[in-house]
Every structure is written in structure tokens, then in C-alpha cells.
Automatic annotation (TrEMBL):
GO cellular component labels: cytosol
Positions of NADP(+) binding: R51, K147
Pathway: Carbohydrate degradation; pentose phosphate pathway; D-ribulose 5-phosphate from D-glucose 6-phosphate (oxidative stage): step 1/3
PROSITE patterns given in the database record: G6P_DEHYDROGENASE
Descriptive protein name: Glucose-6-phosphate 1-dehydrogenase
Keywords noted in UniProt: Carbohydrate metabolism, Glucose metabolism, NADP, Oxidoreductase
Pfam families membership: G6PD_C (PF02781), G6PD_N (PF00479)
GO molecular function, a single term: glucose-6-phosphate dehydrogenase activity
Catalytic activity of the protein: D-glucose 6-phosphate + NADP(+) = 6-phospho-D-glucono-1,5-lactone + NADPH + H(+)
One GO term (biological process): pentose-phosphate shunt, oxidative branch
Catalytic site: H239
SUPFAM superfamilies cross-referenced by the UniProt entry: Glyceraldehyde-3-phosphate dehydrogenase-like, C-terminal domain, NAD(P)-binding Rossmann-fold domains
Length: 483
């Protein structure tokens, strides 16, 4: 199956922080891939902006090396040479007036104007103010801001207020790359474009839902940053919250940005407060071969969690009585992200000693090997009577859509093109961010008040033993963490 590429309108995209890690690893390679796919017009302009003093040629050389390394493209690829012609560079002072007149002179009339804030959140307000005061941005311009969107409810409100002084909500694109993943978008298609699952998508038929985001890497190299956030701020409040919303939301009246985000907001507001006994915090330990979290964070007294598991309940008619189990952590057994919808077992089995029917499971794999599989019971092949066995009906995107892993679009590719199109469906709204923090803040406050240290767990394991007991007390089991 060949995907249909719809070109976007002519645009000027300014990437603030263009010499930084995110721009080099993700943004520039994503733009190159969309250019190769024919989605970006030859007339488009991508303008790097940062403190570093350099000319266009030096920035293009830097971009060439970054795209070659992170996009696995030979530096002498003629397509890369054509793409680099779209690039320009302007040195700007985010906290002063230097360079802003030069940046304004590069902007073209009649093109879509977008500004990507690939910088620390502390600079968001300074850049927004100067874009407005120098007349570079207008009411049709769009800005893209990266997480973290604050570190608690108050700072999130302050950030929203700061951006709102210069831009309307319809101009602000709060990016969460998880929402750009093909499988996450297909979750909405599976739910709302097929009659098969929606009648069963409720507490009458769903026993529980598991959402897992496991990583094999630790926090070495970014320990000082991570130690100020922890797993709940880094993953639960944003990425996992978005996955929870897409699983639990009601069907929107239309696939429209505000309609979709209205339904997600309803889910967040329906979340029950989490009881202390329904949360497990963990911290990976060194084993002689690899360092532990405290060493990676360079803080022997740290009480920041590198792992969190929790039981979450939603107070509405659809999900009352069906728990959602969330877990995420560093230095676990395998790198995997998945959503598992576990249905209830049949109320009565007509098969006696031939194998008890097991619960059906719909598993949505986000990484690696994006795809979905549905576990169903069938008769085991062969003579000798009726013997039941559970098998997966598997759909790997690579097999079903004729794409290998290298052809699967990166999340940033889709999201940046949505910014140019002016489509906010896969971006978070300000009230959604604040509602998520309003639910998360009491959890963090309770941890801090308790003064308890996170539970230790071995690097390469599935997490602390207490997380297993969190499920066992409900007569349930975590799915095995595996690639």
C-alpha cells in the first residue's frame, strides 16, 4: 500500500534553538523526509535561529551532518543538497533586540509563518514577546512549544498566560510527539471507523486496561534535569495521560480539533484522586556493571522516582468499575510501549476439560514494531477432540501496509506538517494541560509529604516487586515486558 502525500502550502518555518539537540536529532531530519516525500514545496524556507554567530553556509553544513547522522542519509545525496537550499540562518538574542530585524527581513509575505520554540521553557515568554513587538508574527502565525508545559498547575497557568499575551489559543501548538505516532492515530481509527469494538468498549466487557512505557536506558547524561522532574512529570502527566484519554474518550461529534480535545478534557476531569496505596514509585539500582539512579543523577540523597506504577479509575458511566493500570520506568528489561485492553472472560464455558477460555486482549504496540494484535481462542489444529488455544490475530504495520521500519513516518514529520496545515487535533489545548496538572499535583504533594524513598529495583528487571503486588491484590497480572 502506498501512502498518499498531500503537499502543504508554501511556508516560512523559524526553528529557535536550531543548533540544539532536538532540532538536530528530530526536527531537521523530519523536515528532510517530508521534503523527499514531496510534501514540502521547493519554495518553502526553513530559518534556523539561535545565539551562535554563523552564516547560512555554516548552518547548512551543520544541518547536513545532523541529517546524515540521525536520518541515515549519505552526505553526498543529491536530495539532501536540494533540501539544504531551503535553509537559512539568523543569529538572535532571545533576551535582547539583536538579530530580530534581520529575522523579520527574511520573512515572506503570503507564506504560512510558523515558529518552533525548540528551546528551554524559560525562553518561551521572551521569544513570544519579541516576535510580537518586532512585528514578525501576526494573528495568522503559529507557534510550536515543546514540553515540559510547566512543572505543576501554577507554572502551567503562568506559561499559558504568558503565551496568551501575544498569541491566541488557536495559534499555539503544544507538541507531544506520542500523539504523532501512527499507531496512536490508528487507535482512533480502530475505535471510531469500525463497528466491531465500540459496542464492547465499556466496563461491561472490558476487565481492565494496561498502559506500559518501558525504557532500557537510564538517566545518565541528563540526570540533573531528570532529578527535578521524575517519571510522573516526565511521562505520566503528558504522554501517558494522552494515551489514557484516547482509550477512554467518548466519540467526538466530528474529527475536529476542538471536538476531539473536548472529549479528552472530559476524561481528565473524570479521573478519581489516586489513593496512596494505588501508587508504586521505584528507583533503579546499580549492579556493579552499570550505575544506579543516584549515581546517574549525581545526588546520593535523591528521592526522585525513575519508575512509577499506578491504578487509575474514571468516574463516568462508560468506565465505572474498570481500572486503568499505568507503568513507566527507566532501565527496564526491554524498550517497549503498548496499550493492552483486556476484556472480561466468557461468563460460562461450554468446554469442560479441553482448556478454559482465556480473556481476549487487544494489544496496541507503539514501539518497537508498531502494530496491533487481537488475542482470540481457537481450536488447536489436529485430531483428538476440542482443545482450545489462544492465538493472536496480528497486524504489523510493516507487513500490512507494505512498509519496513525505515519507511514508517516519524511522529515529528506528521506533527510539523499539521502545524503548517493549521490542524490542532493532535496538539494539547491549554485547559487540557492545566486539568492534567490539577490531577497530578496532589499525587506529587502526597509523595513529598510522606518523605518515603522510592522502592529499589534491579536494572534490567520489570520494576519493583511492589508493582507486581499492586496487580496481584486485584487478581490480575502485568503483561510481560518484552521487545
Amino acid at each position: 500500500m502506498v501512502s498518499r502525500v498531500i503537499p502543504v502550502d508554501d511556508f516560512d518555518l523559524v526553528v529557535f534553538g536550531a543548533t540544539g539537540d532536538l532540532a538536530q536529532r528530530k526536527i531537521l531530519p523530519a523536515l528532510f523526509r517530508r521534503f523527499v516525500a514531496g510534501q514540502i514545496p521547493e519554495s518553502a524556507r526553513i530559518i534556523g535561529a539561535a545565539r551562535t554567530e554563523q552564516d547560512d553556509a555554516a548552518f547548512r553544513d551543520e544541518a547536513r551532518r545532523a541529517i546524515s547522522e540521525h536520518g541515515r542519509v549519505p552526505q553526498d545525496d543529491p536530495r539532501l543538497a536540494r533540501f539544504l537550499e531551503l535553509l537559512a540562518y539568523t543569529a538572535v538574542d532571545a533576551k535582547g533586540d539583536g538579530g530580530w530585524a534581520d529575522l523579520k527581513a527574511r520573512m515572506r509575505e503570503g507564506a504560512v509563518h510558523a515558529f518552533y520554540f525548540s528551546v528551554a521553557p524559560a525562553l518561551f515568554g521572551d521569544i513570544a514577546e519579541r516576535l510580537a513587538s518586532h512585528g514578525i508574527a501576526d494573528r495568522d502565525s503559529r507557534i510550536v512549544v515543546e514540553k515540559p508545559f510547566g512543572r505543576d498547575l501554577q507554572t502551567a497557568r503562568d506559561l499559558n498566560d504568558m503565551l496568551a499575551r501575544h498569541f491566541g489559543e488557536q495559534q499555539i501548538y503544544r507538541i507531544d510527539h506520542y500523539l504523532g505516532k501512527e499507531t496512536v492515530q490508528n487507535l482512533m481509527a480502530v475505535r471510531f471507523a469500525n463497528i466491531l469494538f465500540e459496542p464492547l468498549w465499556n466496563s461491561q466487557y472490558v476487565d481492565h486496561v494496561q498502559i506500559t512505557v518501558a525504557e532500557t536506558v537510564g538517566v545518565a547524561g541528563r540526570g540533573s534535569y531528570y532529578d527535578k522532574s521524575g517519571a510522573i512529570r516526565d511521562m505520566v502527566q503528558n504522554h501517558m495521560m494522552q494515551l489514557l484519554c484516547l482509550i477512554a474518550m467518548e466519540p467526538p461529534y466530528h474529527f475536529d480539533p476542538n471536538a476531539v480535545r473536548d472529549e479528552k478534557l472530559k476524561v481528565i476531569r473524570a479521573l478519581q484522586p489516586v489513593e496512596p496505596d494505588d501508587i508504586v514509585r521505584g528507583q533503579y539500582q546499580g549492579d556493579g556493571k552499570s550505575t544506579g539512579y543516584a549515581e546517574d543523577a549525581e545526588n546520593p540523597a535523591t528521592r526522585t522516582e525513575s519508575y512509577v506504577a499506578m491504578k487509575v479509575c474514571i468516574s463516568n458511566w462508560r468506565w465505572q468499575g474498570t481500572p486503568f493500570y499505568l507503568r513507566t520506568g527507566k532501565k527496564l528489561r526491554a524498550r517497549t510501549s503498548e496499550i493492552a485492553v483486556v476484556f472480561r472472560e466468557p461468563p460460562h464455558s461450554i468446554f469442560d476439560d479441553t482448556g478454559a477460555p482465556k480473556a481476549n486482549e487487544l494489544v496496541i504496540r507503539l514501539q518497537p514494531n508498531e502494530g496491533m494484535n487481537l488475542k482470540v481462542m481457537i481450536k488447536e489444529p489436529g485430531p483428538g477432540g476440542m482443545r482450545l488455544v489462544q492465538v493472536p490475530l496480528d497486524m504489523s504495520f510493516a507487513d500490512a501496509l507494505g512498509q519496513d521500519g525505515s519507511d514508517m513516518p516519524d511522529a515529528y514529520e506528521r506533527l510539523i506538517m499539521d502545524v503548517i496545515r493549521g490542524n490542532q487535533t493532535l496538539f494539547m489545548r491549554g485547559d487540557e494541560v492545566e486539568a492534567a496538572w490539577a490531577w497530578t499535583d496532589p499525587i506529587i504533594a502526597a509523595w513529598e509529604d510522606s518523605k518515603r524513598r522510592p522502592e529499589p529495583y534491579d536494572a534490567g528487571s520489570s520494576g519493583p516487586e511492589e508493582a507486581l503486588r499492586l496487580m496481584h491484590r486485584d487478581n490480575r497480572r502485568w503483561r510481560e515486558i518484552r521487545p
